Amino acid sequence: MKLSHSFALVCSICLLLLISVDSASAFCGFYVAKADSKLYNQASQVVIARDGKRTVLTMANDYQGDVNNFAMVVPVPVILKEEQVNVGESEIIERLDAFSAPRLVEYFDEDPCNRSFAEDESLRAPTAPQATSEMRSDRSNTLGITVEEEFTVGEYDIVILSAKESDGLEIWLRENGYQIPNGASKILRPYIQQNLKFFVAKVNLIEYENTGFKSLRPLMMAYESPKFMLPIRLGMLNAQGEQDLIVYLLSPKGQVELTNYRTVKIPSNLEIPEFIQQEFAPFYKAMFNRSYEQNDKKVAFIEYAWNMANCDPCSAQPLNREELRKAGFFWLNNNRFNNVFITRLHVRYQRNTFPEDLKFQETANNQLFQGRYIIRRPFREKRNCDAVKNYYQSVRERQDKEAINLSRLTGWNIYDIRKKIDFIDFEDVPWWRQIFGS
Question: With the C-alpha atoms ordered 4, 9, 15, 19, is the resulting torsion angle positive or negative?
Answer without folding.
Answer: negative
